[in-house]
Amino acid sequence: MRQLDVIGIDEAQFFEDLYDFCCEAADHDGKTVIVAGLDGDYLRRSFGSVLDIIRLADSVTKLTARCELCGKRASFLLRKTEETQTELIGGADVYMPVCRQHYVNGQVVVETTRIVLESQKIQCSSLA
Its Enzyme Commission number (predicted)? Predict the structure, then answer.
């Protein structure tokens, strides 16, 4: 690793040792480390240790997409499936970039749908 000046890390949210690696590479080995990754999951909770390394950074650039519904700046991902695990690999079939308004409205729709589906499962089970 001595001949490298710059280290790039993509999908950083999946690296468990991200903080320690970046600290070692930048502080002790003198490397420039460029990190790209999601800072939050589909529920807007911290995802991996991407947020932890911000305090190590010389600079931070937060990129956004465009809301697929209105074209405004999209800072959030709306999950289009009923899957609830944090790590769900997928593209446009699973996630949609959305603005704050459409994220909040979309989460309400998703949660309402889940409640209705769960109540239907209970009703169907009691009929069997």
Answer: 2.7.1.21
